[in-house]
Design a protein that fits this description.
- The structure is a single chain.
- The chain is of the alpha/beta class.
- It has two domains: 1-31, no CATH class; 71-148, Ribosomal Protein L15, Chain: K, domain 2.
- The chain has five helices and five strands.
- It has a three-stranded parallel β-sheet.
- The relative contact order is 0.11.
Length: 153
Amino acid sequence: MTFLNTLHNLKTKKIRVGRGIGSGKGKTSGRGVKGQKSRSGVAIKSFEGGQMPLYRRLPKRGFNPVRQKSIAVINLGDLQKLINDKKISTDRKINIDSLKKSKVLRKSINKFKILSNGEFNSKIDIEVDYSSKIAKEKIEKAGGQITVKNQSK
């Protein structure tokens, strides 16, 4: 029983502010006199004195332009793997719509580009927005046909 009493005595009593001068936290309740910080409901968030605040020291990030073109990049090796896994059929023309239907590309993708990385040996007819020269050569070497929409000369 005495053990419980000693524990009870060790607890610190909650300080009730604004309850008279004798409490040590009376009148202004330990907030000083006047000013913004002495009022209730006011917090000066991220204010660091005269120092440059953290949110202004860090670089700006995270703005996404509204009309940003999202271009998907597909390597020939990945395309060959999709053909081998029968996610894409080689008998029809492969374009951005067929890739979206087969859920290879997200719906938000506007354009796609073929790059030459990887082994490729399928005869395909493909329509792309952009292509690297080596990728075009590899497709034509395999007996396929590639149409580049936005071909810059």
